[in-house]
Amino acid sequence: MLGNMNAAPLAWLRALKDTARSGLTVERASLTPLIAVRGACGVGVVVGLALLIGTPQLAVSSAFGAFASGIATFQRSWRPRPVLALAASAGLAISTFLGYLLVGWPWAFVLLLALWAFLAGMAWGIGPTSGVVAAFNISVMLITVHLPASTLGALSHATLIAAGGVVQAGLIVLFPIRPWGERREALADALAGVADYARRLRHDPMAPFDPEPLIEARSAAYVTPRQARRRPRQLHGYRALAERFRPVLASLADPVVGGAPMVGPERDRVRELLSAAATVLDATARAVRRGERVRLPDQALDVLRVPKSGPVLSGPARRAGLRLIALTDDAVEAAQEPVEVTRGGVLARVTWHVADREGRRRGFPDRAPLVDASLDGPYGPDPEDLAAEEAEAARLKETKAAGGKHTPAAGHALARERHLHMPTLAGLVPVAVRSFRRELHWRSPILRHAIRVSVVASVGYLLGNALPPAHGYWVPLTAAMVLRPDFSRTYERGVGRFVGTLLGVAVAGTVMALASPGPYLSAALAVVSVGFMYLLMRTGQAITSICTGAYVVFLLGILGTDWYQTAYERAGLTALGGVLAMLSYALFPAWETPLLRDRLADWLAATGRYAIAVMDAFAQPAERAPRQVREALLDTRAARQTWEQTLNRAEAEPVRHRGSHSPLSRRSASDAQSALVTLGRATMLLEAHLPDREAPSDPGAVDFSAALAPAVAAATTAIRSSEPVEWGDVHGALTRWWEQADHPPPVALRTAELLTDALDDLAHAVTPRDSAGREREHHATGARTDKS
User: Fold this and answer.
1) Residue 12 covered by a domain
2) Ranges of Basic and acidic residues compositional bias (predicted)?
3) Hey, which residues does 350 pair with through a beta bridge?
4) Is 322 exposed, middle or buried (0-12, 13-18, 19+ CB in 10 A)?
5) Which of 9, 360, 459, 586 is the one with CA 20 to 30 A from 60?
6) Strand partners, 351
7) Is 11 within a domain?
8) Selection from 274, 285, 280, 275 nearest residue 193 by Cα
């Protein structure tokens, strides 16, 4: 059970100290002043029009609608920004209208608030953006329901709140600011990450690789059908290239799988190829980031050719080198536009290489025209996609024969119009339903968070109404904004929000008391505050809370002295709401520490499927599924990302697990993570050498894969239940393979030995201490018996 934990007072003090320091930290972040000004203008336009043609109450409601919409557009989401703005304002408008209808009946409103808060908590199962926007709407709704004076007025307020979102969406459409900029940055970071990996491999063949940029680039590749039609040409094929470069680079550099010795002409040639590939990838990343043409130095292109004196590499290293040369040519072809080649020397000059009608460029290796399966890597394309591409290639050929226009390199694999599909908001409904069903179990952190938010919001509202201040809704408002599904973010936000709100209220309250500005000046000060909040949103919770506190004080100042004079009371109510949120997490937690073994087992299961999929390609080359390896790799990355998030959150928790299962110590967790990273890396090395479908089956690979599958399944169960992990059958299959293998051993066999070593390291890391002690005692007893 999750509550079966032990927390020492010193551990709590240390955890609170660390989270408080994190909550008050000001982070370095790239600022987007133009986008911040656009969002602030949206709030200003709505407030100004409402003041001119309506009442101050309507101005405040419309301002909150535009404010909430602007907040939604700044979230880390790949969904179109206008859609986020409209969805946020529509949700707030509906919440305000329904809330006003029931606010006169306290218990009915509390039930509605509890239901709304529960759904907002469950929205985290869809994604962080949905959770943040839903929580913010609940908080703002607690203010806006008190502004109308009648049912018709509530309808007017809801309409103006929705209009605020329409204004923000309209400004985004009319004044686009780098509409594809974030996607360009994500793709360029992935390419630059692979380039950096190539450079590090020159000096360290075992250099680690962080897959996070590739994961982020894949997330950025999800687009709606409308976005797919408008997507810039450079965002079409480079992500697949970055994915395909990584195993080839690692295989080329590895002295065991690649076979190139660490010293000698072969290693020098490997370093030259790695450096040239890094240069091409960096140039591609720079072109994608800036939206300009690819510019390559001629020295890199000279290296990426087979030397005139003959090949230097041999065996697997030669195959990896040839594949690397082909990949760098794909990177050039993916540009689908003239490529600038610079030539150094005293008289530097630039030449342009333009693809001809067959997709070839002079000075580059010849490429096969029309359809090529290289986009999907060595595991091949989907059969349906291949058939569609062949039909499109035939259509292009007919068009060219009829005298129509022909795009350079048309029909090339990297010119495919395929994309990762992002569901529309209507299509997101079944996704949300499935997410809710998936999280409806007691061990789910999302469900426990939803229950926590629902209870705290309801109790906070009742507690705020019972206190003397007239605007006690600040208690549940703060609690709903602070609560997050994990311990560290909840306590960081609690401390940061309290300190930031205190400073923001103090500064804005002092200005209001000394200057006594009228409605228009108060509105102007509110717009300035929200502009700074949009600008500094990603610098930390404390800075954001300062601007938010000042914004709300100035905005309520539009209503008169009865509202802004509550600013100092708000500081106390905000502190009470933050304390209530943090106390609720301590009483009803969702600790990540007891989930470590489950997350590690999930990662092992996913990595094991990846290794088995690659090994099956050698065991049965003609029967492997086209997407089997790719899907297994994606599952491995997702499981690793989940493990790392759980581990980071567990390290911030002030508890240690005391249950029937042995906990994972920090050292054991680190060793297990290193072993699984090595397991994934060894599989990736072998992926770069997948055989053709016509290749003969390898009996050793058949035996090894057959032994590995049940062993991985048994090991995942053993890790979850804190039992020793055994790899005896895997060792037996590896021994038989060595006995049957020819000399030199095949690359699959050498990789299988690396896989087995990594599995042994994992077994040693996760073995419970008492089991390890019994095993050592058993070996010691056996040694004494042999001696006697």
Assistant:
1) no
2) 771-788
3) 342
4) middle
5) 459
6) 341
7) no
8) 285
Residue where a domain stops, chosen among 553, 571, 587: 587
Helices (H), 405-518: 428-439, 445-466, 474-482, 487-515
611 with 708: CB under 8 angstroms? yes
Confirm if 752 and 737 have CB atoms less than 8 A apart: yes
Q: Is this structure's pTM higher than 0.85? A: no
In three-state form (DSSP H/G/I as H, E/B as E, the rest C), the secondary structure along 630-697 is HHHHHHHHHHHHHHHHHHHHHHCCCCEECCCCCCCCHHHHHHHHHHHHHHHHHHHHHHCCCCCCCCCC
pLDDT at 409 over 70: no
Q: Hey, CA dihedral for 188, 194, 197, 198, is it positive or negative? A: negative
- Work out the burial of residue 600: count CB atoms within 10 Å of its CB; fewer than 13 is exposed, 13-18 middle, 19 or more buried: buried
For 110, 270, 322, 601, the CA distances from 365, given in Å and listed in that order, are 71, 19, 11, 45
β-bridge pairing 656-657 and 5-6: antiparallel
Backbone angles phi, psi at 725, to 5 degrees: -100, 130
Number of domains composing the chain: 3
d(CA 566, CA 301): 69
C-alpha to C-alpha distances, 752 to 628, 693, 701, 731, 774, nearest whole angstrom = 19, 21, 9, 10, 30
The conformation of residue 472, written as its DSSP 8-state character, comes to T
Q: Do 482 and 626 have their domain in common?
A: no
Query: Roughly what angle, to the nearest 10 degrees, separates helices 56-73 and 151-174?
Result: 40
**pLDDT tens, position by position, 170-202:** 999 999 988 888 899 999 999 999 999 999 999
**Phi, psi of 560, deg, nearest 5:** 120, 180
d(CA 347, CA 355): 26
Among all chains, which residue has been given the structure tokens 């959770």? 131
The answer to whether the beta carbons of residues 265 and 286 sit under 8 Å apart is no
Nearest CA to 591 out of 651, 524, 664, 662 is that of 651
**Three-state DSSP class for 434?**
helix
User: H or E element: which one contains 222?
Assistant: strand 222-223
Site of tokens 């610098």: 539
Compute the residue count for the chain: 788
Q: What is the pLDDT of residues 746-772, one digit of tens each?
A: 889 989 999 999 999 999 999 876 544
Domain, as residue range, for 201: 180-222+229-338
Tell me if 554 sits within 8 A of 560, measured CB to CB: no
Q: Angle 238-240-243 (CA atoms, 0-180°, nearest 5)?
A: 110
Q: Are residues 157 and 147 in contact, defined by beta-carbon separation less than 8 angstroms?
A: yes
| Distance of alpha carbon 301 from the chain centroid | 34
